[in-house]
């Protein structure tokens, strides 16, 4: 097995400087003094640092490459966003490389470090669910590499972003559940610190307040974006004597996990438990009963976030906040009324 490649981050940590400083020193940038350049290059030689050959090729041939990091590439939503990014980028003459963080902060951080080492001209990112330290994004900003977020965002004072109107959509969906016979509506969500989670939960709570229904915090789940975790959480709620009679689910993974939990307990949808969830997946139409969903315009989101990144790359330093509206699609799983 070959020797593990030393990263820019490791050199930076040993010298107590930023990745940006190390990158600039290795590239002989005028922004770094000669003494620091000498220190960086000496340590790089000692650690057998070798620039990524792909990165060197990129630098020599100067193609226009964008890096994209997403939390879960196999889901329909992220695949559709990536499709939108690639469509827009290709028309503008850019290539796209993608990294999957697998909802893991360390993998996300590594992907961003790799992109920096590849000399990408810009980065598009959606936060992993456990990311609460944003220093790797600050480093990218310090290096002068344009970066734009979509869906799950951070550092709004530094970076442009494209999000959905999840608060309004969650409120509309919750009002629909109330107006069609549900009275005890659970919300099964993701980690509380995610801005996307906060928006969707806010809309749910606003609907309960508007219809003057009591808010029961015991049926509001702030958990993990994981199928088995969400399924077990839904099962626990539905086994209670005072079980909810409806579920609003945070995303497609949690929606399908909750749907499966209802079925596994032999409960009828929507008679016993109505359900509506945020989902871009096409499978929602093919389950029985057909699943009511709140749909992202994922492809459009991808186009918009790429458009903002290219503005940054081309010198526009304005910080943009763009909202792509969601579509509430009512099918059979959410209406308790009988014809």
UniProtKB/TrEMBL annotation:
Keywords: DNA-binding, Transcription, Transcription regulation. GO terms for molecular function: DNA-binding transcription factor activity; transcription cis-regulatory region binding. It comes from Marseilla massiliensis. The lineage of its organism: Bacteria, Pseudomonadati, Bacteroidota, Bacteroidia, Bacteroidales. This is LacI family DNA-binding transcriptional regulator. PROSITE patterns: HTH_LACI_2. InterPro entries: HTH_LacI (IPR000843), LacI/GalR-like_sensor (IPR046335), Lambda_DNA-bd_dom_sf (IPR010982), Peripla_BP_I (IPR028082). Residues 6-60 form the HTH lacI-type domain. SUPFAM superfamilies: lambda repressor-like DNA-binding domains, Periplasmic binding protein-like I. Transmembrane segments: none annotated. The keyword Transcription regulation applies. CDD domains: HTH_LacI, PBP1_LacI_sugar_binding-like.
């Amino acid at each position: 097995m070959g020797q593990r490649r030393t990263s820019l981050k490791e050199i930076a940590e040993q010298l107590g400087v930023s990745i940006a400083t190390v990158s600039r020193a290795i590239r002989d940038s005028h922004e770094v003094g000669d003494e620091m350049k000498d220190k960086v290059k000496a340590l790089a030689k000692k650690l057998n640092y070798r620039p990524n050959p792909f990165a060197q090729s990129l630098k020599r041939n100067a193609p226009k490459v964008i890096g994209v990091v997403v939390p879960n590439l196999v889901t329909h939503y992220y695949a559709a966003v990536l499709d939108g990014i690639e469509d827009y980028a290709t028309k503008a003459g850019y290539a796209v490389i993608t990294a999957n963080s697998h909802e893991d902060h360390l993998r996300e951080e590594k992907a961003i470090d790799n992109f920096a080492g590849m000399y990408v001209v810009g980065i598009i990112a959606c936060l992993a669910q456990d990311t609460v330290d944003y220093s790797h994004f600050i480093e990218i900003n310090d290096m002068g590499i344009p970066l734009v977020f979509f869906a799950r965002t951070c550092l709004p004072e530094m970076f442009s972003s494209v999000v959905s109107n999840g608060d309004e959509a969650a409120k509309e969906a919750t009002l629909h559940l109330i107006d069609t016979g549900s009275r005890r509506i659970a919300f099964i969500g993701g980690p509380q610190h995610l801005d996307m989670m906060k928006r969707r939960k806010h809309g749910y709570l606003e609907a309960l307040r508007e219809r003057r229904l009591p808010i029961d915090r015991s049926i509001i789940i702030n958990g993990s974006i994981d199928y088995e975790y969400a399924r077990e959480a839904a099962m626990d709620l539905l086994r209670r004597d005072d079980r909810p009679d409806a579920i609003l689910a945070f995303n497609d993974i949690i929606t399908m996990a909750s749907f499966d939990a209802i079925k596994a307990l032999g409960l009828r949808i929507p008679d016993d438990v109505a359900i509506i969830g945020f989902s871009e997946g096409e499978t929602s139409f093919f389950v029985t009963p057909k699943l009511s969903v709140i749909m992202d315009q994922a492809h459009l989101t991808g186009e918009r976030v790429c458009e903002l990144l290219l503005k940054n790359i081309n010198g526009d330093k304005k910080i943009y906040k763009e909202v792509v509206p969601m579509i509430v699609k009512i099918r059979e799983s959410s209406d308790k009324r009988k014809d």
